Amino acid sequence: MHKHSWLALLIGALGNAGAWAADGDLSTSGKFDERTGEALFHQVCQGCHMPQAQGASGAGAYPALAANAKLAAKVYPVFMVSSGQGGMPGFKDSMSDQQIADVVNYVRSHFGNAFADSVTLEDVRSVTQR
């Protein structure tokens, strides 16, 4: 690819990132504005994990969250959302502890998951150290 083509792609990506923030997804503080776990899932998570949390593979591998036994240990999804691992970014700098708890609780109680022990703020804070 030519040098100018790479530059055009970079400029386009940066322009889209600015539009993403301007759409209200991130506040001016760099935090997500969504206030429910469902809204956070649809705005942040479904792009990789798919709308029904079925996961995807292609350019990368995105694990299914639907009927995922790993979500039973509630600190596991809290760690993954807050700190990330592998190709998944951590979101503790762009989500509050409450938002992390809300999105984890949403995923743990939807998509064929029925884990009744809710994630608390204390659970999240034990991972994020805030």
TrEMBL record:
It holds the Pfam family Cytochrome_CBB3. Residues 32-111 form the Cytochrome c domain. Keywords: Electron transport, Heme, Iron, Metal-binding, Signal, Transport. Residues 1-21 form the signal peptide. Gene3D superfamilies: Cytochrome c-like domain (1.10.760.10). GO terms for molecular function: electron transfer activity; heme binding; iron ion binding. PROSITE patterns: CYTC (PS51007). This is Cytochrome c, mono-and diheme variants family.
